[in-house]
């Protein structure tokens, strides 16, 4: 009988020790402060994530550059925004280069394309021969470039364009229906018989 009591007391002591140890371990884990680790960033917080649109600012112009090789020459004309008169025309002797900020359109023409190289935003482009003037030309259209940039970098661009087109079509249909109703009203008025009052003379 005393042996059973001793075994029971030992078992209770073991259970109490286990409970105390478990509580102590839990408290120790809860007391550990949130210390940032160098070189580690928490990507689970959306506020810390970089907006890809904010990281890519929208371009405000395109840079067009032409160069003429040293010891070479070419007659060059440059037109901006569809103007009939060139902003520059003349023979350019190399080494020479010029850069233009394009916010609308720019048309470049060269009589001798061999010593001439042209780039748009740092990327080389090819001159093509015009069937009308015989010069070698290249046209920069910044509006088209901006639309292409938005379609590739702004996820809201296509939806905004679709919404704008939908509103335009809706306004056009509304205007057409209004015109049709007005024409019908005018037609009904002209077809209505006129009433005359008969006056009897005594």
Describe the structure.
This protein has 202 residues and is an alpha+beta fold. Helix content is 40%, strand content 25%. It has four helices and nine strands, in the order H-H-E-E-E-E-E-E-E-E-E-H-H. The chain has helices at 2-30, 52-55, 142-153, 157-191, and strands at residues 62-68, 73-80, 88-93, 96-102, 105-110, 116-120, 123-125, 128-129, 136-141. The strands form two sheets. It has a five-stranded antiparallel β-sheet with strand order 3-2-5-9-8. Strand 2 and strand 3 (88-93) form a beta hairpin. Mean pLDDT is 77; it is low at 189-202.
Task: Map the helices and strands.
Elements: H1 2-30, H2 52-55, E1 62-68, E2 73-80, E3 88-93, E4 96-102, E5 105-110, E6 116-120, E7 123-125, E8 128-129, E9 136-141, H3 142-153, H4 157-191
Antiparallel strand pairs: 1-4, 1-6, 2-3, 2-5, 5-9, 6-7, 8-9
> In percent terms, what proportion of residues is strand?
15-25%
- Global mean pLDDT: 77
Q: How can the largest sheet be summarized?
A: 5 strands, antiparallel
Which regions have little confidence, pLDDT < 50, spanning 5+ residues? 189-202
How many E-type strands? 9
Helix content: 25-40%
Numbering strands along the chain, what is their spatial order in the largest sheet?
A: 3-2-5-9-8
Which secondary-structure class do the elements indicate? alpha+beta
**N- and C-termini, Cα separation:** 147 Å
Helix tally?
Answer: 4
Helix and strand sequence = HHEEEEEEEEEHH
Q: What spatial form do the alpha-carbon principal axes imply? A: rod-shaped
Question: Radius of gyration, rounded?
Answer: 41 Å
């Amino acid at each position: 009988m005393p042996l059973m009591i001793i075994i029971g007391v030992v078992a209770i002591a073991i259970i109490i020790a286990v409970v105390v140890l478990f509580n102590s371990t839990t408290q120790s884990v809860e007391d550990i402060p949130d210390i940032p680790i160098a070189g580690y960033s928490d990507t689970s917080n959306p506020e810390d994530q970089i907006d890809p649109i904010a990281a890519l600012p929208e371009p405000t112009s395109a840079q067009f550059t032409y160069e003429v090789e040293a010891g070479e020459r070419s007659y060059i004309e440059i037109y901006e925004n569809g103007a009939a008169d060139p902003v520059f025309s003349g023979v350019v002797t190399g080494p020479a280069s010029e850069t233009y900020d394009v916010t609308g359109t720019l048309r470049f023409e060269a009589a001798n394309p061999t010593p001439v190289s042209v780039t748009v935003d740092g990327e080389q482009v090819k001159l093509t021969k015009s069937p009308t003037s015989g010069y070698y030309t290249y046209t920069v259209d910044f509006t088209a470039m901006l639309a292409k940039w938005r379609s590739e970098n702004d996820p809201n661009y296509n939806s905004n364009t679709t919404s704008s087109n939908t509103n335009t079509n809706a306004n056009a249909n509304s205007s057409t229906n209004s015109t049709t109703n007005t024409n019908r009203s005018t037609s009904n008025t002209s077809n209505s018989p006129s009433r005359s009052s008969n006056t009897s003379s005594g």
